[in-house]
Amino acid sequence: MSEVGAPFDTEEQKEKAILLAVDIGDGNDVDASLDELAELADTADAEVVGRLVQAREAFHPATYIGKGKIDEVRDMAMFTEADTLICDDELSPAQMKNLSDTLGMKVIDRTVLILDIFAKHARTGEGKLQVELAQLRYRSSHLIGMGKVLSRLGGGIGTRGPGETKLEVDRRQIRDRISSLNSKLKDMVKNRDVMRAGRTEAHVPTIAIVGYTNAGKSTLINRLTNAGVLSEDKLFATLDTTTRALTLDSGQKLLFTDTVGFIHKLPHTLIKAFRSTLEEAGYADILLHVVDGANPRHEEQMKVVYETLKELDIEGKPVITAINKCDVSPLVKDIKDPMADERVCISARTGEGIEGLLSKLEEMINSSMIDIEKVFPFDQAGKLQYIRTKGMLIEETYREDGIYVRAKVPAEGLHLLS
């Protein structure tokens, strides 16, 4: 019997998938959601061969869709030779099992698809543990439904990451593995807390880059700091948090932290597993919200970002919104963000507007600094180095009675200069 979490050898294959959604008339744009589901499927290396929508007052409690639409899915699957059905909403175990049994094909939902992409793109030890934790939490609540579905095909979407353990692994074993993962992640969180405390003590302003997935966050941090972060035109191309330093022309040092991208219907299992990583934004001094200005659904995506931040209790911080891709369309410059304190149009790809963005950041940081004018005795000359690295040295003059300084310094570091 396989150990929970042990690698499961799967053969990568191009699955043929049908996308399915139910429009319950709640105001959500189902077609737009299916477009995004198609992008997710492409990122997971599946070929979309068809898509269907059923209008209903509510999801069918047993099969997600009604009998007539099930027959339509079956006919489309036969015509297109599809082997996988991807539903745009999270299914209950019963819905997943009943649909799979009725259709005789593999059935997964949006949550499984996103978890699979996360498993595929996790690079660091912490990222892999977080993905495994999210997958196991999902599977523990879907054992009945997932068993037959995932035994139908030996590989493909939903079987990557820690490995599929099928029905021989019961909830007790999964609970034990979840407990072990939580323990390991707590140790990693402690290490991150130590590093964060060091940054806080050094009083280096931190800017958290947040935004919808594939908005250009990784491209921007690469542009700003030469971070070398993987940047692809795919959803969730990067998952692992990256922190890099940048020194402005004025001498002010900044730290930029790239975070996991947000998405519509982000699974709660992922939010819970990645909470410690996502909450890095909560410790930042400024949020840099990157928006894909060329995406026709940018307004909805901005709303999703702010809703996710609220769910993480990250509110009340200064926000600069960078409307990305101003090189693609002149209309990008007209996009507003009423939730932001400042707004600037940029192109992370070409560098257009980056200087303006840095100026806005510096202005916002300076607004939280205190002006000082002081003569330091020569034996305290070392304190000027703190000003140069943590604040802004405006004037430095050597006089008979010491070193005359005019500068801006962080309020929390003022006591170090007394």
Describe this protein's structure.
The termini are far apart. This protein has a six-stranded mixed sheet, with helices on both faces. It has a four-stranded parallel sheet with strand order 2-1-3-4, sandwiched between helices. The protein has a three-stranded antiparallel sheet with strand order 11-13-12, covered by helices on one side. The radius of gyration is 25 Å and the shape is elongated. It is α/β, with parallel strands linked by helices and 418 residues long. The protein has 13 helices and 13 strands. The model is unreliable at 1-11 and 163-167 (pLDDT under 50).
Strand and helix layout:
Blueprint lengths: L14 E9 L6 H14 L2 E10 L11 H14 L3 E4 L5 H11 L2 E4 H12 L3 H16 L2 H10 L18 H32 L3 E6 L5 H9 L16 E6 L5 E6 L9 H6 L1 H4 L7 E7 L5 H14 L7 E6 L17 E4 L8 H13 L2 E8 L6 H8 L1 E8 L2 E9 L8
Parallel strand pairs: 1-2, 1-3, 3-4, 5-7, 5-8, 8-9, 9-10
Antiparallel strand pairs: 6-7, 11-13, 12-13
Helix pairs in contact: 1-4, 3-6, 4-5, 5-7
Label this structure with key terms.
418 residues, alpha/beta, six-stranded mixed β-sheet, 13 strands, elongated, disordered N terminus
Count of strand segments = 13
Run of helices and strands: EHEHEHEHHHHEHEEHHEHEEHEHEE
Shape, principal axes of CA atoms: elongated
Biggest beta sheet summary? 6 strands, mixed
Radius of gyration, in angstroms, nearest whole number = 25 Å
**Terminal Cα separation, in Å?**
66 Å
Class per helix and strand makeup: alpha/beta
Residue share in β-strands: 15-25%
* Total helical elements: 13
Instruction: Please bin the fraction of helical residues.
Output: 25-40%
Flag low-confidence runs. 1-11, 163-167
Order of the strands making up the biggest sheet: 6-7-5-8-9-10
